[in-house]
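Chains adopt folds. We examine one example:
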Amino acid sequence: MERATADATDAGRQSLFEGEPRTVLLSLAADERVPAHSHPERAVVFHVLDGEIELTLDDETTTLQAGELARFDGDCDISPYAPTASRALVTLAKR
């Protein structure tokens, strides 16, 4: 078993474990956006822990509230935006 501590005070991205699947804690300040990017050949699970995140996938935007999850293909362009301070757990698994 591996354990990780997600430091709520860290801003940006914090990798929680080594190896696969890649697990990242994403912390965004209010009004912060991650520029559009992709994760080729990955399946992505995006779980909002705190706050709300407007998740843009290619040209479609969906708002996720704390407790909600989305699963999508990492080949699309991804751009999360936080209207309020927010945290999400992002899991990226090889397909």
